[in-house]
Amino acid sequence: MSIIKFLTSKVFVKQAVLAVIASVVLCFIVLKWLNGSTNHGDFETVPDLTGKSIEVAQIELDENNLVMQIQDSANYNPNYPKFSVIEQEPEYGSKVKENRKIYLTLNPSGYRKVLVPDLRQRTFRQAKPTLEALGFKVGKLTYVDNIGKDMVLKMTCKDQNITPGTTLEKTSIIDLVLGNGNRASSN
Prior knowledge:
alpha+beta, 3 domains, 26% strand, Trypsin Inhibitor V, Chain A, single chain, 4 helices
């Protein structure tokens, strides 16, 4: 039997039609199954969790069939309470599938601690930008008799002397004792 006769025979045409029908039925069944198993068209709306505590966020996510995933944060934000949500991904109002993970960034308990550099015997002009670059604020400047004009002689924070190796919270105010350029008077 030649190939052309075989391709035009009733047996081949019958088998080809059956194969097409079986493929269509199989595709229809698979699409219906996927539609049901993936909850096609069913979405949950992400609630606004910003500023809320972990416990409240967990309750709201449970009510919306969503899963909480906590991420650490090194960025303290004084506008929010400690351990509250400061960021979320996906954002508020987004439509997501049931059981989707919602990533929450929490506000730490305070600013992170930073090592205070030893700035003694440096000029104020050097000390100020160094402190500000580390996140500290320069507070009160006190001048005492010392031949080194504007030379840092001592650093304090909340009336406590700061020694080399001290760690303070970022944004702490550091007061400086500087030389005024006059020789110490000998009485």
